[in-house]
Amino acid sequence: MASRAKPAAGALSHLDEKGAARMVDVSAKDDTAREAVAEGYVAMLPATLALIQAGGLPKGDVLAVARTAGIMGAKRTSDLVPMCHPIAITGVTLDLAPEGADRLRITATVKTTGKTGVEMEALTAVAVAALTVYDMCKAVDRGMRVEGVRLLEKRGGKTGEWRAE
To answer: Active-site residue 135, yes or no?
Structure first.
């Protein structure tokens, strides 16, 4: 079970001893296989989800475009999140599937072999895919909501495995 306790003083690795922001030095770490899985949802009207499934939106295949956007987002994470290391990603998969009549569930799995994990890449992939769904469907449903973007699990590195509650 994941802890929600307050971090100990000095536990924030992206701050130096004076409190200034820094990119963590990972040069001494060993290369290990790493994987992260994230999820998120786009809540929408049932009619919007039906249009997505039927391919009835004028901008094209929403699921294919969102999947591609999520992959591109994972690859660009270090350009978007200032303290993220550029990572040689070895694999990204995105799954987009209806959940109930009014939600689309997005999951991303990102893999690498390297000195730092891919949690941020998996989260970014989900967020960019969700924003793409919104962009492609906003003409028919401006009330959509991106919800619940979170890390589900990570493997590899010094801290090993972690799973969300």
So the answer is: yes
Q: Which of 16, 25, 61, 135 is catalytic?
A: 135
CATH of domain 32-157: 3.30.70.640
Find where tokens 């003409």 sit.
Answer: 139
- Angstrom CA distances, 88 to 11, 14, 38, 49, 95, stand at 26, 21, 18, 35, 21
Nearest to 108 by CA among 34, 35, 16: 35
pTM of the predicted model as reported, rounded to 2 decimal places:
0.88
Selected residue with higher pLDDT from 14 and 123: 123
C-alpha to C-alpha distance for 12 and 21, rounded to whole angstroms = 10
Instruction: Name which of 9, 27, 5 is nearest 19 in CA terms.
Output: 9
* Residue 111 backbone phi and psi in degrees, to 5: -130, 150
CB 137 within 8 A of CB 149: no
Gap between the Cα atoms of 77 and 125, Å rounded: 8
Task: Spell 62-99 as b/e; 16+ CB within 10 A means b.
Answer: bbebbbebbbebbbebbeeeeebbebebeebebebeee
**Has residue 1 got a pLDDT over 70?**
no
Per residue in 75-93, pLDDT tens? Answer: 999 999 988 999 999 999 9
